[in-house]
Design goal:
- This protein is mainly α and 350 residues long.
- The chain has a domain of 211 residues: Rhodopsin 7-helix transmembrane proteins (Rhopdopsin 7-helix transmembrane proteins, Up-down Bundle), CATH 1.20.1070.10.
- It is built from 12 helices and 2 strands; from the N terminus they run E-E-H-H-H-H-H-H-H-H-H-H-H-H.
- 36% of the residues are buried.
- One of its GO terms (biological process) is adenylate cyclase-activating G protein-coupled receptor signaling pathway.
- GO terms for molecular function: G protein-coupled peptide receptor activity.
- It is found in: Membrane.
Length: 350
């Protein structure tokens, strides 16, 4: 409709998202929805820089932990497998942010010309599903690890311990379920519509009146029912572990650390739950708030998990210290024959 209006230079809409339907118009108002602007995919200059910083921190932290866990032997290899799997899931969030930053640079200065094409593109759908896969697998892994530790600590003399096959099977099921959650919106366009292309950052966190009922119900089930239930279950179990009196100091330490980890994750998820509830109640939410949640609050778990799960543990720090000491000793042994020869020559002199 707007392509035929060659002389149209200014246009005014009720919402910024409609500006994408008139890419040839020189001036469109409103020129931002808080997420994207007429010029850029990310409207906020601070977040345009911050997206790269957060992505780097997430990827570097998780890859670093994976490498350390691979090099340093652990008493619980099955637990280490779960930690590595969690790091892989969290690392996907960093990859998602890298893509958002890259496309922001690609469309810099002329985003509105490509806005509609971008939100309907396969690239937007794929990186949106990547973020969904990361968040849901991370939550499920956290719940599984919490349940596993709960059984070990509450029933310390029980013979049950997850073996290699059982751990691999559980991790495979978790990843398969996360993959299904992420790709289901691709199956039926009539029900879900453009599920991941509702905004410039390709993440279906916010509901609006134009969203299809099937998509609204699905996102509500994922972010409120599934994720909230998992986090509530984890917090409840870790609370029980911390409150339980036991004579084993190591178990108490593990219980307190797990409670702190799960409680931190729950705090990070709380704004997401509130934002989803408010959007379902049709409360007007500015795009700036959504952008801060997607770029900053949502990835916090991915950045903190490798630190909380690995670098805060006493046993891991001791193994790392021991490994570094052995490396230094091996380096020092290279000079030992020469030093002994010099001492022997000096002592044999008349």
């Amino acid at each position: 409709m707007f392509k035929s209006l060659a002389n149209l230079s200014h246009i005014y809409f009720k919402k910024f998202e409609y500006c994408g339907y008139s890419p040839n118009v020189r001036s469109c108002k409103p020129n931002t929805d808080g997420i994207s602007s007429f010029e850029n995919l990310l409207a906020n200059i601070i977040l345009r820089v911050f997206v790269w910083v957060v992505a780097f921190v997430i990827c570097f932290g998780n890859v670093f932990v994976i490498c350390l866990r691979s090099c340093i032997a652990s008493d619980s290899r099955h637990h280490t497998m779960s930690i590595k799997s969690l790091c892989c899931a969290d690392c996907l969030m960093g990859v998602y942010l890298f893509f958002i930053g890259a496309f922001d640079i690609k469309y810099c200065g002329e985003y509105n010309r490509h806005a509609q094409m971008w939100m309907e593109s396969l690239s937007c759908q794929l990186i949106g599903s990547l973020a969904m896969l990361s968040t849901e697998v991370s939550v499920m892994l956290l719940t599984y690890m919490t349940l596993e530790k709960y059984v070990c600590i509450v029933f310390p003399f029980h013979n049950y311990r997850a073996g290699r096959k059982q751990t691999l099977s559980t991790l495979t099921v978790i990843w398969a379920l996360g993959f299904m959650i992420a790709v289901i919106p691709f199956w039926d366009k009539q029900t879900f519509g453009n599920y991941y292309g509702r905004n410039g950052v390709c993440f279906p966190l916010h509901s609006d009146l134009t969203e299809k009922p099937g998509a609204r119900s699905y996102s509500t089930g994922i972010f409120l029912v599934f994720s909230y239930t998992s986090m509530f279950f984890s917090v409840r179990k870790t609370s029980a572990k911390t409150a339980r009196h036991t004579v084993f100091d190591q178990e108490v330490t593990i219980a307190k650390r797990f409670f702190f980890i799960v409680f931190t994750d729950a705090l990070c998820w709380m704004p997401i739950f509130l934002l989803k509830i408010l959007s379902l109640l049709q409360v007007e939410i500015t795009g700036t708030v959504i952008l801060w949640v997607v770029i900053f609050i949502l990835p916090i778990n991915s950045a903190l998990n490798p630190i909380l799960y690995t670098m805060t543990t006493t046993s891991f720090r001791e193994r790392l210290k021991l490994c570094l000491q052995m490396k230094w000793q091996q380096l020092g042994m290279k000079d030992t024959p020469h030093s002994i020869s010099m001492i022997y020559t000096h002592n044999s002199a008349p």
